[in-house]
């Protein structure tokens, strides 16, 4: 993340850039300088997930009760010294950063493969050096913070720009995160989350003014330096030969610096002694070997300019930026949205079309364009055109979706409606286990019905609506391009209600209609009565389990017992008891089953939001329904044939509920011709190792 090599350079060669500070003291100073003001810290939440996840166990699907307690303590500590926290989460992946996103996901795949290899070899969780955040952590953290009363926002672009802008425009105490881009933005002070001691509230402040002093640069030069070194917009390899030339002509090479450190010094020296001689006189392309990458380079530099800021390196609006503007269209109803769609040239007509346009999927048919264009000099702001291209035509509904997205109250809904493009990062899945399909495929039919609901279309079978571009990570997916996923029509008695009814109506009976729509998304309308009879929060769990067992025929009765028993035993169990729980060993299959369930809970967040929230979000938050170690314990016990009484720890009330919930799930699955049988009763050929090929699941 951030500028390539800058973090290591600052730590090893410019330690004076880092200063230990205390948040309590900073807050007191801020209050004295701004009477009546509240010291506010803007938190880049995505950078903080690893810091916040303090539970020892991470392999089993997440210790959600422990994690929630960790977040509560974090918030309490800052609140106690009068500091307000504003949390920002990534809401969109900008097209200019998609390649970097893909690169990281593929790297994560390799790390996950090593994790599963370790589990199979050692039957235990790997050390913290192989730590991988539990699936769904970012999504559920939003809701946890909101439940803790915190202001939580989801960005309309990569969060770092919105974090820097908010801090700059609101005179904030500082930014808390772990991204060297915050050393480049000319904004409020930047504090390191990794160096934060919650007990003392000491951390390290990284001073961009001291960095400039060490490099002989001004603050306005830092965006240029960042792009020449490589960042999330400009690939590192683009200026490799240029950096080498700078190094060979650099006369002040430091022996105590590694090669990368000397390269940074050499590039900074070239900027200050060579490029600055012509600043304001020559264009960047006349001073640098930009070649065909001029537009991308200008975009990279401009991406660091916050509202109202200008760069002395831009003489005028380069024509390449004009070209870039024509190629990148804003796809939000809001003119400030930064989500973009790449365009390609149609070789026959020379007309620009959206990438992956495919007549078979009717991608272009429903695209709705507002022709208002806001003229703005893109070298003084983030380069973008202001055309508003969306997937839906109702501006009021889109406005509601956008507001819910920004307030972190929904998941994926706005991405589908605004750009028709969504993504899901890595999950802890074993690529070598062909018996269990990836969560990306298991829940795809649900997403397809949600797409039909959000985008509209015809009736029966596949919708006539547009295909949605899915960047979902699964084994065998090289992520060179998105999967084009067509909406799938739902079967709802009385027809599918429109979004205005589901989202805005206050009429009697609308809540029942919302629930009907939710169940139809899971294709479980026939089990409405059974599921409605289940009390909260187990109603959502049963819905999810029925869907899972119908979709995946290698799940057995022992798996069902484990899922239900852990959810029952979790109720009322103290967090400290969950933390102290010890496991005999780690089973790779149980790890993947946990992933399937947790990703199912994130899918419920999507569906519930799309249907107008027939259920309370709290009903399927994992700290109410799932604990990784507890599930693993129940899985191992169930595999050994433990009775229901033992699985629910001899709790009579739990025993009764266990059989009730089991009956609901088995009856609903029976309606779908899916009997749930014990693994011991499977015929010899049914070993639980059914081969799921990606293409087989892609047919959906």
What is the number of helical segments per DSSP (H or I, 4+ residues)?
Answer: 31
| CA-atom Rg in angstroms | 27 Å
* Classification by helices and strands: alpha/beta
Mean pLDDT: 86
- Give the neighbour order of strands across the main sheet: 1-7-6-5-2-3-4
Helical residues, percent: 40-55%
Largest sheet: number of strands, sense, barrel closure = 7 strands, mixed
How many DSSP-defined strands? Answer: 16
CATH architecture of the domain at 6-211: 3-Layer(aba) Sandwich
Q: Which spans have pLDDT < 50 for at least 5 consecutive residues?
A: 318-387, 684-700
Text of the CATH class of the domain at 6-211: Alpha Beta
Fold-level CATH name of the domain at 6-211: Rossmann fold
CATH superfamily membership of the domain at 6-211: 5'-nuclease
Shape: globular
| End-to-end CA span | 35 Å
Strand % is 5-15%
Protein name: Constitutive coactivator of peroxisome proliferator-activated receptor gamma isoform X2
Family: Belongs to the constitutive coactivator of PPAR-gamma family.
Keywords: Receptor
Region (Disordered): 333-361, 680-700
């Amino acid at each position: 993340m951030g500028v390539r090599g800058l973090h290591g350079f600052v730590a090893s060669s410019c330690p004076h850039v880092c200063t230990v500070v205390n948040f309590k003291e900073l807050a007191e100073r801020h209050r004295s300088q701004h009477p009546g003001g509240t010291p506010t810290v803007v938190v880049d939440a995505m950078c903080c997930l690893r810091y916040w996840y303090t539970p020892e166990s991470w392999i089993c699907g997440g210790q959600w009760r422990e994690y929630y307690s960790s977040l509560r303590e974090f918030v309490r500590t800052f609140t106690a010294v009068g500091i307000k926290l504003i949390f920002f989460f990534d809401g969109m992946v900008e097209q200019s950063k998609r390649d970097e996103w893909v690169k990281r996901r593929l790297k994560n795949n390799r790390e996950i493969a090593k994790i599963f290899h370790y589990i199979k070899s050692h039957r235990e969780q790997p050390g913290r050096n192989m730590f991988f955040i539990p699936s769904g952590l970012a999504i559920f953290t939003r809701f946890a913070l909101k439940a803790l009363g915190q202001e939580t926002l989801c960005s309309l672009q990569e969060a770092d720009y919105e974090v820097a802008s908010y801090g700059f425009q609101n005179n904030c105490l500082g930014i808390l995160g772990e991204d060297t881009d915050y050393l480049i933005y000319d904004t409020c002070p930047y504090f390191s989350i990794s160096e934060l001691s919650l007990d003392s509230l000491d951390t390290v402040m990284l001073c961009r003014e001291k960095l400039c002093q060490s490099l002989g640069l001004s603050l306005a030069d830092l965006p240029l330096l960042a792009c020449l070194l490589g960042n999330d917009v400009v690939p590192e390899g683009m200026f490799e030969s240029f950096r080498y030339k700078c190094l060979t002509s650099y006369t002040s090479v430091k022996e105590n610096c590694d090669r990368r450190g000397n390269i940074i010094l050499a590039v900074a020296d070239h900027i200050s002694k060579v490029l600055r001689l012509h600043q304001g006189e020559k264009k960047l392309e006349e001073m640098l070997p930009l070649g065909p990458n001029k537009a991308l380079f200008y975009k990279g530099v401009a991406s660091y300019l916050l509202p109202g800021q200008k760069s002395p390196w831009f003489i005028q609006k380069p024509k390449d930026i004009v070209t870039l503007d024509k190629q990148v269209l804003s796809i939000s109803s809001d003119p400030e949205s930064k989500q973009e769609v790449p365009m390609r040239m149609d070789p026959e007509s020379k007309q620009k079309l959206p990438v992956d346009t495919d007549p078979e999927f009717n991608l272009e048919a429903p695209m709705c364009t507002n022709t208002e264009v806001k003229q703005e000099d893109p070298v003084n702001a983030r380069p973008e055109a202001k055309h508003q291209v969306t997937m839906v035509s109702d501006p009021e509904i889109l406005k509601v979706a956008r507001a819910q997205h920004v307030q972190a109250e929904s998941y994926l809904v706005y991405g589908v409606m605004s750009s028709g493009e969504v993504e899901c990062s890595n999950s802890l899945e074993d690529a070598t286990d062909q018996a269990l399909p990836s969560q990306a495929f298991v829940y795809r039919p649900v997403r397809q019905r949600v797409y039909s609901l959000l985008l509209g279309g015809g009736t029966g079978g596949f919708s006539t609506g547009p295909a949605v571009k899915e960047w979902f990570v699964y084994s065998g997916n090289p992520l060179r391009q998105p999967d084009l996923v067509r909406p799938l029509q739902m079967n709802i008695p009385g027809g599918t209600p429109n979004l205005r009814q589901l989202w805005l109506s206050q009429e009697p009976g609308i809540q029942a209609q919302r629930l009907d729509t939710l169940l139809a998304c899971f294709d479980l309308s026939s089990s409405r009565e059974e599921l409605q009879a289940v009390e909260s929060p187990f109603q959502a769990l049963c819905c999810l389990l029925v869907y899972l067992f119908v979709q995946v025929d290698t799940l057995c009765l022992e798996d069902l017992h484990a899922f239900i028993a852990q959810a029952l035993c979790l109720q009322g169990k103290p967090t400290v008891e969950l933390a102290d729980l010890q496991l005999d060993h780690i089973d790779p299959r149980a790890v993947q089953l946990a992933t399937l369930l947790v990703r199912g809970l994130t899918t419920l967040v999507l569906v519930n939001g799309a249907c107008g929230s027939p259920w309370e979000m709290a009903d399927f938050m994992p700290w109410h329904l799932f604990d990784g170690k507890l599930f693993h314990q129940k899985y191992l016990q169930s595999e050994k044939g433990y009775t229901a009484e033992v699985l629910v720890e001899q709790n009579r009330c739990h025993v009764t509920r266990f059989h009730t919930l089991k009956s609901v799930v088995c009856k609903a699955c029976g309606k779908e011709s899916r009997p749930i049988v014990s693994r011991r009763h499977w015929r010899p050929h049914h070993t639980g190792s059914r081969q799921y090929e990606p293409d087989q699941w892609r047919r959906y």
